[in-house]
Amino acid sequence: MAVYTQVSAxxxxxxxxxxxxxxxxxxxxxxxxxxxxxxxxxxxRDRFILTLYEKRVAAADLPFFMALLDHLxxxxxxxxxxxxxxxxxxxHELCGRPACLIRFLPGVSLSEPxxxxxxxxxxxxxxxxxxxxDFDLARENTMGVEHWQPLFDKCGKSLNEISQGLYxxxxxxxxxxxxxxxxETQMPRSVIHADLFPDNVLMLGDDxxxxxxxxxxxxxxxxxxxxxxxxxxxxxxxxxxxxxEIGNALLDGYQKIVPFEAAERAALVDLARGACIRFLLSRxxxxxxxxxxxxxxxxxxxxxxxRLETYDAMDGLFA
Amino acid sequence: MAVYTQVSAxxxxxxxxxxxxxxxxxxxxxxxxxxxxxxxxxxxRDRFILTLYEKRVAAADLPFFMALLDHLxxxxxxxxxxxxxxxxxxxHELCGRPACLIRFLPGVSLSEPxxxxxxxxxxxxxxxxxxxxDFDLARENTMGVEHWQPLFDKCGKSLNEISQGLYxxxxxxxxxxxxxxxxETQMPRSVIHADLFPDNVLMLGDDxxxxxxxxxxxxxxxxxxxxxxxxxxxxxxxxxxxxxEIGNALLDGYQKIVPFEAAERAALVDLARGACIRFLLSRxxxxxxxxxxxxxxxxxxxxxxxRLETYDAMDGLFA
Lengths: 319, 319
What we know:
2 copies of one chain form a homodimer.
Chain A: H1 9-16, E1 24-30, E2 37-43, E3 47-52, H2 62-74, E4 92-94, E5 97-103, H3 115-131, H4 148-155, H5 159-162, H6 166-180, E6 189-192, E7 201-204, E8 207-211, E9 218-221, H7 222-233, H8 244-255, H9 262-289, H10 302-312
Domain Aminoglycoside phosphotransferase (chains A, B): 27-257
Keywords (chains A, B): Amino-acid biosynthesis, ATP-binding, Kinase, Nucleotide-binding, Threonine biosynthesis, Transferase
GO biological process, one term (chains A, B): threonine biosynthetic process
């Protein structure tokens, strides 16, 4: 959420000459996305996002992400593909970092989406999944179910520094979720976004204008994607207040495009519990490894513990 | 250089209805300016900068800054005036902060301006000063000459933590500059920008398209403004390499519009030494009061000590 690599106007002006995009008119470092450096770039022709990939995105994964965005954009999905230079290359280097020039999309990320907006976002995810049935590449979910126990063990008893008893409580939940987790063949797998929080959906009014920040995209259960989304959208930030109307609108919007199979529908609560464990653990790890006085805002891991408790008390996601 | 106050899309959408500027299409937090929160805002009609004023800008000073920008904009100067709402107000409140919606200006801040670009920037300052001869408001220079000895004393012997011997060396220079400093009546005073670093000049090619970040603007010697500019533009960042060609181009560009009076010309070196002391002291204070591991980049105070030594060895700014 900051600009880590400073790009000079002169270096950017040179960089843009590789592309057929006009000349530099303005650029501003923007506070957005996962830990990359992003600039909003305006040329005499159009606007773009320039992304320099910092340590959290592996350069080796970029071809996968770019192929994914191209595939979706070619099928009319509202995703921001990278711009190819005159030689057809999308992945470049600038200031010692892998860099892409990406189409700018209009729209704003909502802080308090309504049920109608959640319905539209669910539908947008459904259309994205439908457009991916013929996408052939795969990428491991490096934050997927196999990684939760090892990350839990790495955090260890320090979890109790976040909240007294969290180590035991989360350990118990983790055991339950792992034993309930579907087998690979039990339901459809697909490339998924895996992080479609309201931050990553651009909207104008009730219309979705952009799905962004695909840098956690990976291969996993298709229904896990909507479970992640449900856990992110249907609660307030602190995870205290569950809004069933929002949650139902998301699921309804989604299943209009991709009807749930029986196994998916039956597993939704466990997938949502898994999503809570995934975000709780990554936030806990960051929390335990970020100094309290650092300028980076640490996200509260317990906001996902509260969600987990809510799901634990539910029979199913649909009321 | 970060976004301190988070504004939601919903709050911004509401805020914009006060103005006749169209509807919100996009907004991004940008890393820019002194310690304010800035957003680049796009509506169905135009683009704007939304600034929320954080602690470094006193709310009581905002009417002065806004009157200054209006005055300059009315006289065709490339400055970004605040947009008035339907009731004529320019200064608002948003998310508990004083806030202004400001016209967006094209152009980029250069990292390595050429002599021709420096000439254009000097001319732009000259035109700005010429446009201010009939501006009646005044504001104390809170970083002006009367404040250097107190700030030096507040830093005290801790200056030696920045560089061994800096306390004595800077004390000696400060005494010299204070005794050489012109009397108030000795040369023209004006409202000045007081911080016209390359960061604060937007350019397209060799043309100046914007003068921005007027939040240090104050009443002081007119020639002190060009001295500040000279110390910022004519050296590399570290203050090691002086580029006389750039310095002369700046002064030449300026005096085409506002010819130096004899007293100004004679005092330029001392004014530039004063500028070095001003930036050295504010950087030293920040350095001594910012933890080394904070995410904020501390600017090297010694970059201004090196400039000060260069000016100390000069007979005059013009070769």
